[in-house]
Amino acid sequence: MALLLTAEIAYAASTSYVPVKMRPYSGIGILMVSTGNSELAEPYQIYEEPAIERKGELDLRKIPPYEWIFGTVENSLPLIVMSRKGNWLRVSYDDAGREAWLNPKRAAAFKPWEAFLKGQPAKLLPGLQKRHYQLYQQPGRGASINLLPRQLFTVVKLEGDWALVMTGDNSMGWLRWRDEDGRLTICLGKAKQ
Fold this sequence. Notes:
Blueprint: H1 2-14, E1 29-34, E2 44-49, E3 52-58, H2 67-70, E4 76-85, E5 88-92, E6 99-102, E7 110-112, H3 113-117, E8 121-124, E9 134-138, E10 141-146, E11 153-159, E12 162-167, E13 172-176, E14 186-188
Antiparallel strand pairs: 1-4, 1-7, 2-3, 4-5, 5-6, 8-11, 8-14, 9-10, 11-12, 12-13
């Protein structure tokens, strides 16, 4: 048993093994929270339910920045919004998928996916199933071309789980921007992978 474990560790070290990051659930949009210019940005209060049963403070310095999906945004940090009740947003605030409600300081910082992605250069995340690299004439029908894993495209519009995109050679087609489980399949073009 020890020999097998040692062999696996040696193999991982010799192949520069990089663990695959878990793709986050997409939710309904993005909340860009300002981290300010100071090292000690004011924390947000988080709740079990909107304005009920305070859980504590959300320390923005400990939130995963998702730069591999959104790129680096100066003085802002993206939180994926899972749902909304009035001004209150339920956000996913760590890699484990923990969620809490918060009342954002600036309502304009929340953008539904349609508003956030429209016109943005994007690309598919690496390591997806082959069918996700397929561009379709209509959502899920009429396969036309295959995209390359790092090929840039521009998001024109969203319809449900599908995005109408335009590639660099002015080809247009549909692809899934989130999979059947609701996990993201695309990232912004400036994201580090």
